[in-house]
Amino acid sequence: MALISVSNVSLGYDAGIIAKDINLEINNGDYLCIVGENGSGKSTFIKTLLGFQRPLSGKVIFGEGLRKNEIGYLPQQTSVQKDFPASVWEIVLSGCQARAGLRPFYNSDEKKMARENMKRMNVEEFAGRCYRQLSGGQQQRVLLARALCASRSLLILDEPVSGLDPKATADMYEAIKKLNDEGVTIIMISHDVNAAVRFATHILHMRSNPVFLTKEEYKNSDLGKCYLAVEP
After folding, report:
1. By percentage, how much of the chain surpasses pLDDT 90?
2. If pLDDT is split at 50, 70 and 90, which confidence band does 102 have?
């Protein structure tokens, strides 16, 4: 069974439908990039997968024992979040909160997981530092380590390179690709269609009638050729 199955889903608000008839399956090890114009429903689709918003119609079905609270999620950062006065260790460890449940403390396994994921993202040297003292790229790696504490199998990333300089952007893409190569399923919103085609296995192009294709199918489609042609 697929990790996530989306069947005849329509998205929108009281004002009307944004996107309709979304059908796709996400399997273990996939790397899905969600692209499209501003306002096309990219973030709304992510919120629907996470259970933050109900679809107007259709179903989202989770398989492989996956639970919504076990999905690693890296949202877009706000200016307030970037200035959060907590240590890197505290932020990464907080990714284990769903595992801890009602316990008022983190156990040794959860602390071990946090340390391992900090090492995985090359941020262990920052453990005692205040999060707001880090660069944008370092902060995103910390948040990626936090997301990995929530889920070892599936990460949902909303514009993870937004606001980063070219070097930090390249490093972030490489870090995400390495996780995917290690078996982590990735679902990522991106405005960079070229990067999506370079790294992803599948593309979901959001519009009123969204298109779901493999990377190769997208590259050879009229839609893909149009958007790739206008990318800088």
Report:
1. 72
2. low
Q: What integer pLDDT is reported at residue 76 of this predicted model?
A: 85
Over residues 184-189, the mean pLDDT reads 96
Give yes or no for a contact between 11 and 19, defined as CB atoms under 8 angstroms apart.
yes
**CATH of the domain spanning 1-71+152-232:** 3.40.50.300
Of residues 2 and 78, more confidently modeled: 2
Q: What are phi and psi of 120, to 5 degrees?
A: -60, -35
- Residue 167, Cβ neighbours under 10 Å: how many? 9
Non-local CB neighbours of 231 within 8 Å, separated by 6+ positions: 192, 193, 194
* Residue 174, CA distances (Å) to 125, 161, 169 in order: 20, 11, 9
Residues contacting 16, CB < 8 A, separation 6+: none
pLDDT exceeds cutoff 60 at 231 = no
**Closest to 159 measured CA to CA, from 114, 196, 205:** 196
Rounded to 5 degrees, what are φ and ψ at 105?
A: -150, 165
The span from the CA of 168 to the CA of 162, in Å, is: 10
**Domain range annotation of the chain:** 1-71+152-232, 77-150
